[in-house]
Amino acid sequence: MKFFLNVFMIITVVLIVGCNDGQKAKHKSASEKAEKPIKIPDFNKDSAYHFVQMQVDFGPRVPGTKAHTDCAKYLSGTLNRMADTVFVQTFQARAYDGTVLNGKNIIGSFQPEKADRIFLCAHWDSRPFADHDPDIKNHNTPIDGANDGASGVGVLLEIARQISLSKPKVGVDIIFFDLEDYGPPQDSQQKGEGDWWALGSQYWSRNTHIPGYFAKYGILLDMVGAENATFLMEGFSLYYAPGLVKKVWNTAHQIGYSSRFLFEQGGYIEDDHKYVNEILKIPTINIIHLDHQSVNGSFFDHWHTVRDNMETISQETLKIVGQTVLTVVFEE
Ligand code: AHN
Ligand code: ZN
C-alpha cells in the first residue's frame, strides 16, 4: 500500500510540475511576440559597500604613496574582470604648490564597438590634508575619503558588475579620475588663480583615451555614501545639461527616492564634470551630496575632515544612487 501511495505521489508531482512547465512555455512564446520588456538589474548594496571598504583598506589614496599605487592596481584589475576593454592613462600634472604629481585615470569600456554611448565617472584619489577638520592639529593629515572618493567608485564598480552580467542597449564607459582632490588647502597662501581641482579630468578632457572619443552624456558621482544624503541640482549641471538633470531626478522619483533627489538648485561646484563640460563639451552632470543645513554650508558635515571614514558610509544611500543610475543606463 505504501509503495502504491509513493508511486501515486510521484506521478502527481510529475503531473503538477509538467503542467506548470507547459503553462510557462506557452506564456513565454506569447510574450516573445510583443516587444521584450527591459529588465532592470537589482543594484546590490552589500557588494557596493564591499567595493568602498576595499579601497579604504589601502589607506588614504594620496598621490605618490604606496596606497595610491596599490589601489590603482586593484581598480584596473577589478575592472579587467568586468569590462570588455580597460585603459590606464598615465600622466603628470602640476599641483597648486608646484609639486609634480603622477596620475592614473582608469577606464573600463563596455561594448566599445557601439557608437551610441554614455559615460559614468568618479574620482578615486583621496585628499592629502584634512584642512576642514575642526581640530587644527589634523590639518595636514591625509583623509580616508570613504565618502569623498571611494563611495562614487564603489557604486560604479557595482554598476560595472551588473553591466557585465546583463547588457544594456547603450555602450558604457566607466571612468575613475585621479588627482581630483589635490586643490589648495583652506589656509594656504599659495592658492593664486588657477584650476587646481580635478586635474585628472582636465587631462582626460584634453587627451581622451580614444582620439575623437564621443559620448551622448556623462554622469559624475561625488560623495554619494553618507547617511540621509540629499542631492540638490548642482549649478554647472543645470547650466550645461538641464535635460539630463531632469531625466535622472525624475527616474529617482519614479523608483521611490523623492526624499533624497530634491528639485532644488544647489551651488556651483568645481568638480570633474565642470572640465568635461568646458573642455570636451560633452554634457555632464554631478550627483553630489549638497545640503543647505550642513555645517560648511553645502557639503556633508565630515567633508575634508579625518571623520570621512567608513563610519560615514550608509548602504541605503549607496543603493539609492546606484539603483537610480543603473535604471537610467538600462532605460537608455
Ligand atoms: C571645491 O570646493 C572648489 N571643489 C570641490 C570639489 C571636490 C572636492 N569634490 C570632492 N572634493
Ligand atoms: Zn574632496
The fraction of residues assigned to DSSP E strands is: 15-25%
Average pLDDT value? 91
Q: Which ligands, by name, code or SMILES, are bound?
A: N-[2-(1H-imidazol-4-yl)ethyl]acetamide, zinc ion
- Structural class based on helices, strands and sheet pairing: alpha/beta
What's the helix count?
Answer: 9
Whole-number tally of structural domains: 1
Properties at a glance:
single chain; 332 residues; alpha/beta; Aminopeptidase; two-stranded parallel ribbon; 9 helices; globular; disordered N terminus; binds N-[2-(1H-imidazol-4-yl)ethyl]acetamide; binds zinc ion
Set down the secondary structure blueprint.
Elements: H1 2-33, H2 45-57, H3 66-82, E1 85-94, E2 100-110, E3 117-123, H4 146-165, E4 171-177, H5 199-206, E5 218-222, E6 231-233, H6 235-240, H7 242-254, E7 261-265, H8 272-280, E8 284-288, H9 315-330
Parallel strand pairs: 3-4, 3-5, 5-8, 6-7
Antiparallel strand pairs: 1-2, 2-4
Bound molecules: N-[2-(1H-imidazol-4-yl)ethyl]acetamide and zinc ion.
